[in-house]
Amino acid sequence: MDVTRRAVLRTGLLAFTSALPAVSQANPAAPTWPSSLVQAARAQIGVTTRYDPTYVRIAYPGGDVPPDRGVCTDVVIRAYRRAFGFDLQKLLHEDMKANFTAYPKAWGMKAPDPNIDHRRVPNLAAYFTRRKAALSLEDDFASYRPGDLVTQMLPGNLTHIVIVSSKTSTEAPGRPLVIQNIGAGTSEDDTLFAYQRTGHYRFAPAPV
């Protein structure tokens, strides 16, 4: 999909998100281990203010685009780095080098590319699945705990990933919010059940 069409779709999604009700209720079911991950994701709100899918060359390991911009995957990558020192760029690249056939080939890749591989939702989903972090998809709000990762399919067949928040909706009690970059930077929104969910992961950084 070209960048122009993607930008138009993101603008429409942003308009939908901005119309959602205010949300600020705490989630009493929040476990303790992912609280650092949620805090690290929430700390990006107001810092990352742009959605920018441009391919750029970045450092390796520890590479990143400027903090004021990024895509949905950057929220996850930055949160794990900030909270635990986990570098998903390096971890995923090393796994792709050793197990390239286990990853999607949707982009015509002939070899791993540390500039972009970790910033693609299907690659992260494959990595988390290979790490035995995949969970079943449920409609029960309580199945989604703070710190969980959920992949979605947005209109226009756009893949997306969110971090489940420790706050819940005021519109539907118990429905978790998510922290994401869906079009205009990192935000905390009530969209977990607004789009098709395609994957659910609980990727602990250390034994719990």
Keywords summarizing the entry:
DUF1287 domain-containing protein, 28% helix, disordered N terminus, 7 strands, 208 residues, 5 helices, alpha+beta, seven-stranded antiparallel β-sheet
How would you describe this protein?
Strands 1, 2, 3, 4, 5, 6 and 7 form a 7-stranded antiparallel β-sheet that branches. The chain is globular. The protein is about 30% helix and about 20% strand. About 35% of the residues are buried. With about 210 residues, it is an alpha+beta fold. Helix 2 packs across helix 3. The protein has a domain at about 5-60 and about 70-85 and about 135-200: Alpha-Beta Complex (endopeptidase fold (from Nostoc punctiforme)), CATH 3.90.1720.
Short précis:
Helices cover 28% and strands 18% of the residues. The protein has 208 residues and is an alpha+beta fold.
Q: What portion of residues is helical?
A: 25-40%
User: Per DSSP, what share of the residues sits in E-state strands of 2 or more residues?
Assistant: 15-25%
What is the CA-based Rg, rounded? 16 Å
Number of strands: 7
**Element pattern in H and E:** HEHHHHEEEEEE
Keywords: Signal
Protein name: DUF1287 domain-containing protein
Signal peptide: 1-21
Organism: Rhizobium miluonense
